[in-house]
Amino acid sequence: MNDWAPIAKEYDPLKAGSIDGTDEEPHDRAIWRAMLARYVPNKGVTGDPHLTLFVARLNLQTTEDKLKEVFSRYGDIRKIRLVRDLVTGFSKGYAFIEYKEERALLKAHRDANRLVIDQHEIFVDFELERTLKGWIPRRLGGGFGGKKESGQLRFGGRDRPFRKPINLPNMKNDFYGEGSAEKRNWSREGTRDWRTRDREYERSRDKRWPERERSWAWGESERERDSKEERSRGRERKDRDR
User: Fold this and answer.
1) What residues have CB less than 8 Å from 79, skipping those under 6 apart?
2) Model pTM above 0.70
3) Do 59 and 20 fall within a single domain?
4) Which domain of life is it from (predicted)?
């Protein structure tokens, strides 16, 4: 808990598949695939990774010229790489933009996220492939984000950070019988004790019920008696006035 952070500092497929980064077992096959994968970043990619932005969710019609027009307002751009399909040449909907200065990079990272370009709200983050240790891309079961429909949500990134874990007492595991045999026996005995205490309480409540009824009846009679006295006093006052 002391080293917990909403944004992952090192990529772990098991943690990325957990909403709070505390899972101990993978819940989908893609996590298994990512855990078994050995990914090496593309050596053909050039440029400074610490000055490069990752831009995703682009309109497939968006071009390099459009990206340059939009992102050049934050600073001088050194290179734009719009990722395209090798066979068709069509855009895959994401790009990498390298700036000349870190100040321009940070400004674009802060202001360009969720900007609308060609009727698409884009997503902007730092490049993670060469900067985040242990990074596994989405096609191998890793990455950050994902859709609910796919059942392969990933957490720990800017778009979907980890939620803060809820600290529960250690007794929870024992209560559900997840500890050792001795602890499980203890929890079952404890459960029986609670049940016997509940039964004793029910019996004592049944015994106290007639007394409560008598007390309530006595209270009602007292109220009626007081109201009658008040009425009689009021009549006496009226007779005196006459």
Assistant:
1) 47, 97, 98
2) no
3) no
4) Eukaryota
Is 173 domain-assigned? Answer: no
| Residue whose pair of structure tokens reads 């079952």 in the numeric block | 188
> Averaged over 21-34, what is the pLDDT?
91
Q: How confident is the model at residue 210 (pLDDT cuts 50, 70, 90)?
A: low
CA nearest neighbour of 92 among 48, 138, 59:
59
Give residue-wise pLDDT tens across range 60-96: 999 999 999 999 999 999 999 999 999 999 999 999 9
Its domain, for residue 151, covers: 1-39+134-163
Boundary-marking domain end, from 131, 150, 177:
131
Domain boundary among 114, 144, 163: 163
- Spatial contact of 142 and 11, defined as CB atoms under 8 Å apart: yes
Structure tokens at 107: 């400004």
Distance of CA 158 to the CA centre of its chain: 12
Three-class SS state of 31: helix
Contact criterion met (CB below 8 Å) for 186 and 42 = no
Question: If pLDDT is split at 50, 70 and 90, which confidence band does 53 have?
Answer: very high
**Neighbour-count burial of 140, counting CB atoms closer than 10 A to its CB (0-12 exposed, 13-18 middle, 19+ buried):** middle
How high is the pLDDT of residue 175?
36
